[in-house]
Design goal:
The complex is a heterodimer of chains A (301) and B (675).
Chain A lengths: L2 E12 L2 E12 L3 E5 L6 H8 L7 E6 L2 E2 L5 H4 L2 E5 L10 H8 L8 H10 L13 H13 L5 E5 L7 H18 L2 E6 L2 H4 L5 E6 L2 E7 H7 L1 E6 L14 E6 L3 E6 L6 H9 L4 E7 L2 H15 L1
Parallel strand pairs in A: 3-8, 3-9, 6-7, 7-8
Antiparallel strand pairs in A: 1-2, 1-4, 4-5, 9-10, 11-13, 11-14, 12-13
Chain B lengths: L1 H33 L8 H32 L17 H27 L6 H28 L3 H19 L16 H4 L3 H24 L2 H21 L22 E7 L16 E9 L8 H7 L17 E2 L5 E9 H13 L15 E8 H7 L9 E16 L5 E4 L2 E10 L5 E10 L7 H4 L11 E6 L4 E4 L1 E6 L6 E7 L20 H5 L2 E16 L30 E4 L7 H6 L3 E9 L5 E8 L3 H11 L3 E3 L1 E3 L2 E3 L1 E9 L15
Parallel strand pairs in B: 2-5
Antiparallel strand pairs in B: 1-2, 3-4, 4-5, 6-14, 7-8, 8-9, 9-13, 10-11, 10-14, 12-13, 15-18, 16-17, 16-21, 19-20
The chains are: A alpha/beta (301), B alpha+beta (675).
Amino acid sequence: MNTVIETHSVTHRYGKVAAVQDLQLSVPEGSIYAFLGPNGAGKTTTIKLILNLLQPTEGRATIFGVDSTRLGPAEFERIGYVSENQQLPDWMTVQQLVDFCRPMYPRWDTNFCSKMLKDFLLPADKKMKNLSRGMRMKASLLISLAYRPRLLVLDEPFTGLDPVMRDEVIHGILELTEQENWSVFISSHDIHEVERFADWIGFIDGGRLRLGESTSNLQVRFKRLDCVVPEGSHFASPVPRSWLMPEISSRSFRVIESEYIPGESEKRLVGLLPGAIDITVADLSLREIFVGLAQSSSNNS
Amino acid sequence: MSMAFHFFKRDLRRVWWLYSICFLVYAAEGIFTAFYPPLQDWALVGNALVARGLISFSILHLLVLVVLVAQLVQEDPPVGSTAFWLTRPVSRASLLLSKTAGLGLVLLIPVFVNTAALSKFGFSPGDLALAAAEILAHQCSFVFPIAAIAALTPNFRWYGAAAIGLAVGIGVVLFIPANGFNGGFVLDRNAVIALSNTRAFLVESILIASGGLVLAHQYLTRRTRRSIILAGCAAGAYILIAGFWPWSFGNVAPIHADHAPFEPSKVALEVRPIQLNRRGFPGGGFAGAVSLGIYIQVPKGFSGEGIDAALSLSGIPEDLYVRVRSANPKMTTPDGTAIRTFNQIPAGSLSSDSAVAAALGGIPVYSYFLGDSGSAVLAVVDTDTFQRYRDSPVRIVDDFDLVAERYQVAAEIPIVKGGQFTFGRVSVRIMDLVPRPDGVTLVVLKSTILLSPDSSALLGSNPSDPRLRGDPVFLLVNRSRREAVPINPTITRTGIGDSYLSGMLYQQNDQMPFGGGGGANAPVLDKHWLAGATLVCLERVPVFEFRKTAEVDLLKLGEPWLATKNGYEHTLAMEVNTPQAFSLPKPEYPEDLVRAGVEGTVVVELSIAKDGSVTWAKAIESPDPRLSALAEAAVIKGRFKPAIHDGVPSAYRMRIPISFSAQEQMPDPEGRVPR
């Protein structure tokens, strides 16, 4: 499996505070990698480290196999970056912005750009500073897609977008990735935004990567177990670390098993809760997995 | 390269209006400088307005440049992690190149405009080229540091705060007592001499080099912390050199060796080192320089009025030509008592008059201020202070330079509108002749000195500055009437970014303020006087120079000079042997005056040279102008035994009364009274 982004034990500290710690990340080529985590988890810092906007305190990151600190024009011709943190030349009109960016990219696709301009309903003669937040994000997407980058890095691209506009943007990204087989690395604090199209999930919390794997793997690995237990049941021994958010009420028990093995996981449940009957195993949505992970790590911390 | 040009074009589109304002400000100033409007009767008001106008230009320069540079750099800031260019395929070197091109345009505007303005003044192409280079260097010393600040700050607010901090820091450094930022970046042919102000040269070099280096480092590496450390090192070097540079060669103290120390009785002269504050002496200034203090004892509460008269009575030998700058006129006695000082009596009013007069073939010069060049400190000390201080030893602990100078005519042109001459790197043009209702004709002149602006301090502090060829003196001279009037140069700096000092020289017959003297008695410069007059430029020529290691360990001040009710007359005998007349011709006394009963005593002030000849004479009290002329004509032919000081013949200034009695028809040659 080829990777477009890799980090090797990357750590970044702001003073004594570590925003990212020992990060091992691997983004496969052609994937739509959703980089999830609660606010302040280290998502933006990770992206900045990958794109050499910040330099790692320890470790190293590579993008297209090139060390992030050595990224140059040749690499940036293949990378599209959209972030609401990025400063745009507000004094330019949309058209001026397009005209300014075009000469930088040999592979700039004018027709594609015109099509997006039309599809996104962007007013070409309006100054950037007079655009709404969503429009600015669209304009930013426009100048990051028009040269058909091989890797699109999106940092919280949906923040502030209304649902309609969000769907439009998602639709655009999906359509493009299917056509071009681009890799997309998209950060978000809300799984709901990306669950429809992400095929890889990375979850970061407290600066550490909690998981990073394909959604199909996750859905095989994460299951919800429900069962009926005798009144007053309690655990025979400490619960395993793979159990997330175990809830026990008077006669029922529910838990998210993060290492589900058919048959084995049920046996382990019965072993820990003697008398457990009617065990049901249910698939989880990505959202449920994300919430489980988030709450679990919150409880642990 | 093409990407650099692409960004450069974008920047031009972004800040073209700021470039335009910048150009307009400089162009307006250039036009103002090149085509100075002739002044009318409101000359003085106009002069003041012009001075303020030029100051406004310099403030405008500053503001426009500060904003323009920030806009240029911070459009693509190399600091922070949110800049648009950071994730675009543009190399840092290209971006730096585009910014350098943008800054280059900023630098070229004043170079172009000022050089064009200067070309109006008849300077040679070579001088203009050098001036352009100086302007460029000066601009760089401002633009590069502020560009570096812009590159280290993420937005205009931070930039503004940092720039203000830098300005305050520089201000603090410049107030360090030992400091005096004079001189500047000079690319003159005779730069070696001009660069005697090594500190200023180094300071400017540091500003240019560190500004450029930090800017380049930040763009090429984006290692902001390291860039800040680099800037900090540069700031440290700046503080060390600008604030604590221990050597300065810009201040020379040309005192004739024969006269140091000098010990007359009624005036206490002190030769003392300036800038010994780190060694326990009061005052600031420069190590190695000396200043001459002239202490005149006066009653308490003395207002300063009449100091000129006191000086003329002092008997200071005329050839004690003093050119000293006082960096700090505040003085205290060794026991801490503050001495009241009247800052900077110009050398011109002390004794250089005679040198000027000698250059004009003996034509006496009415003493106006000759500018703020070479000065001594006049300290007025009340009796008690004087008594305490007079026995205090004053030591000279450093070397000092001694320079003797004389004047010679460098240029002379008729006084006609449009007349112009170039003297070294000084251009003088007669802009207009404006008759006033009171009969005086104002001669509106303009001098343009081809200097970088921060070299302006050299004007006074470095008499050997080759560009000025000895700090020229300008006079209006009527040789047939044997009268000369120095012109008061008003030197105004036109601020950051300009290359020259634009000065308006004008003559006025008004009373000059304290210290000038002679205004009331000066000739009325009406059209008749001016018709036969010329504009003369005198240059100072060093006669000899040497360096002396002074080891004077005790310089006692003179005996107390007891004040009388009028405050100026001394009652103790002079210790200097005063001149004695060998021959003093009788003045003519025409019969018509005798018959008309025109009589009385004319007090003539005269200067007697070492050889006993009278170098000039002027009636200062007279019952009738006709008697004045007769007395002067007689006295100028006199021969004296010169004054002897420490066994050495010395020049001397004194006054003698010449009596005209209609009855006796004879002046009394024995009645002279040394004053």
